[in-house]
């Protein structure tokens, strides 16, 4: 099987559409996910979720559970061994308060209230059922409806600030035409295909975990906190994650309990959440209600863009979906305001879910922009171009790069946008289905975190590169190896890449669409460091053709080191290292974005998404039939994987627009569709006519490699594009997501 | 009560003593036979991650009691390739990037093999989409999955005609 | 799952003999295992009937009717060329349900016996008269959308989830049953019970009885040229119906000679109103009689919870199904069976 589609050009692995390096393992079933591990002596743990949203557990039938053949242990608040770290506090700023049987209280449906351990999964499962909890029920509130909430005091993680630029009251006053609309988005649950899991084994005070984590180093520190051991004593093995989408970046209560059970039992314990259990203690995207007030002057320029988001969070911790911030940095309004309010509900704490804030905020904003365009009498694309921001609105900062105009132009051309009638309800296909076209602008920041890596040149001229990077499907195993190979001037097959293990140099967080830029930056720096050191050895070696090149620069291509600018002087890595005593030579590197760089420019990925929907005129069933997304996201390391990620994001946009919604019964507070039959995400038949264009961008400011990130931007823009297309097909403006058949029926 | 079953698993006859009639085929494979390639995504027939071939037909292993399988033939993702030679569906998934995280992939591939054998879809993408709709991919690699199944169908048909490229 | 005894009888007689209250029949298991895992069903004995050869096979009987063994899988039946030719809307309904995997496992009898998908029935901590008589009905005032607009009562507002049963009701299918007292037959239209005051009684099956076969009468083939199933749902595939309709016409000389119309997902059983069918007879197949028939079929519909929109949608679904049937059965099964988007790839209906 060929590893590449086109012949490799030496020194330019990046940019090649290589197939996934982990692909063989994934198509043969040998890729090992956490719960695939079954060590000797394994016990199985199953937890009981609370069936009420608020109150107290007053009885658990521990006798019945214990009587089940094979059940070894029942853990309840009464007998739960102590944890060294207080669960009502947080191990670090980037984590949430977890529920680990600290008392008999219940603060959301789905909260763990007991844990049953058994010799088999069947025994533990039946034991958990037989605990048959009884409750003292208190009144609960689980829906946003009618709640004003409290202003958010900006601060730590999960408490978004707002922003205000220009004179907002004046902007409202200056408007000759204005809209004031409210959009609602529901609670959504990540539902990675791999549910949260752990296989925990203790060896004295050393803890070994098979656990899916988007942040290995932080996870080690967090679990160490709960168990009172040094972070170095915790090892996490995580070669693959079956999807994360933000939910696997943090320690969770069920995982802590399983680890505790393993310590109590003195045997390894496996816990794997059921699908229903994914709707509770492992985060979600909080519901929002967003008010958008837009005004334009006589020339259709925005005088004001005023976006207020009210988001649900839990009673005991903060994650307030920063939806209103989606209106910052995109359109050139004279006055710009984003503000957030929080409503405390008896729900599990929300958390970041693919494009947190941007997804829900962009959904509302892009619909509101279409509503405003309609009032302005302008084509939606023309209206956006009329309000195109040449510099970051409010701050006036220049963009590090912004090929959004090209995204609009290329996307519109590919889609055929020019033929769109302005009026809704004008297009029908040959079968009489209403056809509508809509568009939306996509925007996502390009943050960097902190990462470290090493690159070791081996005596045979091959290399080993190491960082604790995480591949949750975005393609780290492949894209990061491409970057590393280039930094070393080696072809891919000469580079061994180790990742997905906490003992490796810290690659930081796989999140925020920043992993390739950050971990890739560290690998690049490590490779360059190794080459520099190799150059020093060669320059000092009288037997090397590079001898005496002094402080000249070196370049590396195809396993040979060259004096920069002088191809006549070169030597094989292996030859240099062989004379140096056949030693391994290790370079180290790190990456982060200097504060000054972050200050100097506004940095975003941009895009434009165009959607076609078909709506049955009588039955009102909707199908997205075409989606064209044009994205400018800096340097593309692997076009094949980038296309997949962007398409995945766009399909999340379909999901947001038409499908996803957790439905709480307001009486019990339980989510009544907590499974994949009731909580719909798109299936294959929902997806057709998908196209992705990437617009070339050279960005000298974002980072040394010019990488912006593509993991989340696909969701943004798409939701609004689909909703706008539904309006264009039907003339009906739904202001609540997901848009359902009943919302479109006359 | 223990039950003895004998089944042909990935071409090998396995005699299995079950100490518990509740064990599903999925948990038998994953927890008792060290074949974790088949994945658990919902355990309730709602996602397709556990798809295997049972007597040649694609089935959800999570809804199949192991005790019913005496005399059955089961093929899992681990038994699909012929040694180092990948099955054409595996190759097509790789080349068309028909996956991201890889978790639903064994189920997708086994489902595709089953679909192609059913002969229902041919290489019509719309029929493939419908035929593959019992396999949820949260990464949403559907575009690549459809292309992969289409391509594998064509290659297998060509191979059958004897004009494989 | 509660621990159970597992038995595999070798004959129907033996199966009937080992049955006792607390025992369940295991066919394809797609619904039973799901309910057992959820704690909704807690059998003490699982009787695996899959070894019973008598329950298999598709046979044409001397009178021209078709006899389908209880264990024939949904896929096997839908893929049977003769069956799909003679009863196209039944095949279309089968192929619009669940997924390829589930259709390979799920059986004809199991489809008839499948239980409601109401979230409050599935949730063992909720009140549900169907699951636990006398506890109440939390679905009333709840958030589940599988709610009825016809034939429901205070005790239960749920619907029957089957696609398959909707055209079966239209075609006067007959269920063959065996029990301790011998064999009997039940018309499919009488097989599922409306909840009334006893929602726990879901079918006409008596304790210890087993479905052995399903029969479609010979005259049902007379509709083959004009028979469609239409299923509205909120995802393009792998979703239960929001509303559905099976419509079949026998057209002679441009006039409807006989009509069948059955609606799904709006009541605890497939909803067939013969008076509505009668309104179609003698008319050319077009809008006015279709509107009248659909309106008549939904006569008496009232909302439960806030599902009043379902009444309008069901009426429109019925009209569209009649239009599709009038246009003629497609030569080939549509790419998306029973979908409003069925023919997007250019499959053409023949008239």
From TrEMBL, chain A:
GO terms for molecular function: iron ion binding; oxidoreductase activity. Residues 1-22 are annotated as: Disordered. Gene3D superfamilies: Aldehyde oxidase/xanthine dehydrogenase, a/b hammerhead (3.90.1170.50), Aldehyde oxidase/xanthine dehydrogenase, molybdopterin binding domain (3.30.365.10). InterPro entries: Ald_Oxase/Xan_DH_a/b, Ald_Oxase/Xan_DH_a/b_sf, Ald_Oxase/xanthine_DH-like, AldOxase/xan_DH_MoCoBD1, AldOxase/xan_DH_MoCoBD2, AldOxase/xan_DH_Mopterin-bd_sf. Residues 28-139 form the Aldehyde oxidase/xanthine dehydrogenase a/b hammerhead domain. Coiled coil: none annotated. Residues 1-16 have a biased composition (Polar residues). It comes from the Bacteria. It holds the Pfam family MoCoBD_2. PANTHER family: DEHYDROGENASE (PTHR11908:SF153), XANTHINE DEHYDROGENASE (PTHR11908). This is Xanthine dehydrogenase YagR molybdenum-binding subunit. It comes from Loktanella atrilutea.
From TrEMBL, chain B:
GO terms for molecular function: 2 iron, 2 sulfur cluster binding; metal ion binding; oxidoreductase activity, acting on the aldehyde or oxo group of donors. Residues 3-80 form the 2Fe-2S ferredoxin-type domain. Signal peptide: none annotated. Gene3D superfamilies: 3.10.20.30, [2Fe-2S]-binding domain. Keywords: 2Fe-2S, Iron, Iron-sulfur, Metal-binding, Oxidoreductase. The keyword Metal-binding applies. InterPro entries: 2Fe-2S-bd, 2Fe-2S-bd_dom_sf, 2Fe-2S_ferredoxin-like_sf, 2Fe-2S_ferredoxin-type, 2Fe2S_fd_BS, Aldehyde_Oxdr_Iron-Sulfur, Beta-grasp_dom_sf. The keyword Repressor does not apply. This is Xanthine dehydrogenase YagT iron-sulfur-binding subunit. It comes from Loktanella atrilutea. The lineage of its organism: Bacteria, Pseudomonadati, Pseudomonadota, Alphaproteobacteria, Rhodobacterales.
UniProtKB/TrEMBL annotation, chain C:
It holds the Pfam family FAD_binding_5. Residues 1-221 form the FAD-binding PCMH-type domain. InterPro entries: CO_DH_flav_C, CO_DH_flav_C_dom_sf, Diverse_Substr_Oxidored, FAD-bd_PCMH, FAD-bd_PCMH-like_sf, FAD-bd_PCMH_sub1, FAD-bd_PCMH_sub2, Mopterin_DH_FAD-bd. The lineage of its organism: Bacteria, Pseudomonadati, Pseudomonadota, Alphaproteobacteria, Rhodobacterales. GO terms for molecular function: FAD binding; oxidoreductase activity. Keywords: FAD, Flavoprotein. This is Xanthine dehydrogenase YagS FAD-binding subunit. The keyword Metal-binding does not apply. PROSITE patterns: FAD_PCMH.
């Amino acid at each position: 099987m060929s590893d590449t589609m086109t012949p490799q050009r030496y020194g330019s692995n990046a940019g090649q559409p290589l197939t996934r390096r982990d692909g063989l393992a994934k198509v043969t079933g040998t890729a090992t996910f956490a719960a695939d591990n079954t060590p000797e002596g394994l016990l199985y743990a199953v937890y009981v979720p609370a069936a009420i949203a608020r109150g107290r557990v007053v009885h658990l039938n521990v006798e019945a559970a214990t009587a089940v053949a094979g059940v070894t242990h029942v853990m309840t608040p009464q007998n739960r061994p102590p944890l060294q770290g207080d669960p009502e506090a947080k191990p670090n700023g980037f984590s949430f308060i977890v529920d680990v049987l600290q008392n008999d209280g219940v603060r959301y449906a789905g909260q763990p209230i007991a844990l049953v351990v058994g010799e088999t999964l069947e025994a533990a499962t039946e034991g958990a059922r037989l605990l048959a909890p009884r409750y003292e029920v208190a009144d609960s509130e689980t829906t946003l409806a009618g709640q004003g909430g409290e202003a958010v005091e900006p601060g730590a993680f999960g408490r978004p600030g707002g922003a205000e630029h220009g004179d907002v009251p004046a902007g409202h006053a200056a408007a000759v035409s204005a809209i004031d609309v409210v959009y609602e988005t529901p609670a959504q649950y990540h539902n990675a295909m791999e549910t949260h899991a752990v296989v925990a084994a203790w060896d004295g005070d050393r803890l070994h975990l098979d656990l899916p984590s988007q942040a290995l180093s932080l996870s080690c520190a967090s679990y160490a906190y709960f168990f009172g051991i040094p972070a170095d004593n915790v090892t996490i093995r995580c070669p693959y994650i079956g999807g994360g989408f933000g939910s696997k970046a943090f320690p969770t209560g069920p995982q802590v309990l399983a680890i505790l059970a393993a310590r109590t039992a003195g045997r390894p314990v496996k816990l794997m959440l059921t699908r229903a259990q994914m709707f509770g203690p492992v985060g979600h995207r909080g519901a929002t209600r967003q008010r958008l007030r837009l005004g334009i002057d006589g020339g259709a320029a925005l005088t004001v863009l005023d976006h207020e988001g009210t988001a649900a969070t839990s009673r005991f911790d903060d994650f307030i979906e920063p939806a209103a911030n989606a209106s910052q940095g995109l359109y050139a309004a004279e006055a710009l305001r984003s503000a957030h309010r929080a409503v405390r509900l008896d729900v599990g704490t929300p958390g970041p879910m693919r494009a947190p804030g941007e997804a829900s905020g962009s959904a509302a904003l892009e619909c509101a922009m279409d509503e405003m365009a309609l009032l302005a009498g302008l084509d939606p694309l023309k209206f956006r171009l009329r309000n195109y921001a040449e510099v970051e609105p409010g701050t006036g900062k220049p963009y590090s790069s912004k090929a959004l105009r090209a995204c609009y132009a290329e996307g519109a051309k590919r889609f055929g946008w020019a033929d769109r009638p302005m009026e809704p309800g004008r297009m029908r296909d040959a079968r009489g289905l209403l056809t509508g076209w809509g568009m939306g602008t996509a925007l996502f920041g390009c943050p960097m975190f902190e990462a470290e890596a090493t690159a070791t040149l081996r005596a045979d001229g091959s290399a080993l590169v190491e960082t604790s990077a995480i591949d949750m499907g975005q393609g780290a195993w492949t894209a990061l190896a491409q970057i590393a190979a280039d930094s070393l001037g080696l072809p891919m097959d000469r580079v061994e890449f180790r990742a997905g293990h906490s003992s490796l140099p810290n690659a930081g967080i796989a999140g925020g669409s920043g992993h390739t830029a950050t971990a890739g930056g560290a690998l690049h720096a490590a490779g360059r460091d190794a080459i520099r050191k190799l150059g020093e050895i060669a320059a000092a070696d009288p037997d090397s053709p590079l001898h005496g090149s002094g402080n000249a620069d070196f370049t590396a291509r195809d396993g040979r080191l060259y004096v920069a600018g002088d191809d006549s002087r070169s030597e094989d890595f292996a030859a240099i290292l062989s004379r140096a005593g056949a030693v391994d030579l290790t370079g180290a590197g790190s990456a982060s974005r200097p504060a000054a760089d972050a200050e100097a420019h506004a940095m975003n990925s941009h895009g434009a998404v165009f959607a076609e929907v078909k709506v049955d005129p009588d039955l009102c069933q909707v199908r997205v039939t075409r989606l064209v997304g044009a994205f400018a996201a800096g340097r593309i390391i692997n076009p094949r994987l980038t296309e997949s990620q962007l398409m995945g994001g766009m399909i999340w946009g379909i999901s947001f627009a038409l499908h996803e919604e957790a439905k709480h019964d307001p009486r019990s507070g339980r989510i009544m569709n907590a499974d994949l039959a009731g909580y719909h995400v798109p299936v294959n038949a929902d997806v057709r006519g998908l196209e992705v264009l990437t617009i070339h961008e050279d960005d000298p400011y974002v980072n040394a490699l010019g990488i912006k990130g593509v993991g989340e931007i696909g969701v943004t823009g798409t939701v609004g594009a689909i909703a706008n297309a539904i309006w264009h097909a039907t003339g009906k403006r739904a202001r609540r997501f997901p848009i359902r058949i009943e919302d479109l029926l006359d | 009560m223990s039950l003895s079953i004998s089944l042909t698993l990935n071409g090998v006859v396995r005699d299995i003593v079950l100490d518990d009639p509740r064990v599903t085929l999925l948990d038998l494979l994953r927890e008792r036979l060290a074949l974790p390639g088949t994945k658990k995504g919902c355990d309730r027939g709602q996602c397709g991650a556990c798809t295997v071939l049972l007597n040649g037909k694609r089935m959800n292993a999570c809804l199949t009691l192991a005790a019913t399988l005496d005399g059955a033939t089961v093929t899992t993702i681990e038994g699909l390739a012929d040694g180092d030679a990948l099955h054409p569906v595996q190759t097509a998934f790789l080349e068309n990037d028909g996956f991201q995280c890889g978790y639903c992939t064994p189920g997708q591939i086994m489902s595709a093999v089953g679909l192609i054998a059913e002969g229902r879809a041919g290489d019509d993408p719309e029929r493939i989409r419908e035929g593959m709709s019992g396999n949820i991919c949260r990464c949403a690699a559907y575009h690549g999955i459809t292309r992969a199944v289409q391509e594998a169908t064509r290659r297998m048909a060509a191979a059958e005609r004897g004009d494989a490229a | 799952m509660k621990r159970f005894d597992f038995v595999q009888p070798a004959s129907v007689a033996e199966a009937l003999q080992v049955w006792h209250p607390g025992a369940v029949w295991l066919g394809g298991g797609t619904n039973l295992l799901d309910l057992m895992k959820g704690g909704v069903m807690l059998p003490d004995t699982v009787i695996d009937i899959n070894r019973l050869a008598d329950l298999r096979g598709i046979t044409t009987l001397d009178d021209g009717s078709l006899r389908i063994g209880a264990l024939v899988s949904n896929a096997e039946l839908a893929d049977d060329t003769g069956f799909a030719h003679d009863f196209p809307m039944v095949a279309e309904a089968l192929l619009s349900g669940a997924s390829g995997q589930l259709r390979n496992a799920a059986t004809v009898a199991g489809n008839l016996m499948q239980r409601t998908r109401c979230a409050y029935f599935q949730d063992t901590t909720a009140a549900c008269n169907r699951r636990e008589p006398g506890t109440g009905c939390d679905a009333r005032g709840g958030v589940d959308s599988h709610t009825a607009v016809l034939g429901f009562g205070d005790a239960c507002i749920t619907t029957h989830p089957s696609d398959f049963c909707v055209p079966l009701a239209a075609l006067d299918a007959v269920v063959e049953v065996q029990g301790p007292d011998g064999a009997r037959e039940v018309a499919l239209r009488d097989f599922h019970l409306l909840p009334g005051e006893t929602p726990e009684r879901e079918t006409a099956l008596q304790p210890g009885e087993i479905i052995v076969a399903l029969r479609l009468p010979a005259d049902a083939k007379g509709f083959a040229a004009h028979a469609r199933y239409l299923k509205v749902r909120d995802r393009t595939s792998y979703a239960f119906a929001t509303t559905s309709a099976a419509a079949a016409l026998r057209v002679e000389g441009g006039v409807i000679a006989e009509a069948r119309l059955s609606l799904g997902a709006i009541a605890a059983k497939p909803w067939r109103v013969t008076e509505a069918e009668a309104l179609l007879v003698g008319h050319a197949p077009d809008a006015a009689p279709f509107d009248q028939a659909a309106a008549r079929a939904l006569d008496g519909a009232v909302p439960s919870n806030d599902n009043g929109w379902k009444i309008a949608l069901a009426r429109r679904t019925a009209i569209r199904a009649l239009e599709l049937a009038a246009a003629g059965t497609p030569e080939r099964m549509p790419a998306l069976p029973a979908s409003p988007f069925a023919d997007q790839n250019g499959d053409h209906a023949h008239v």
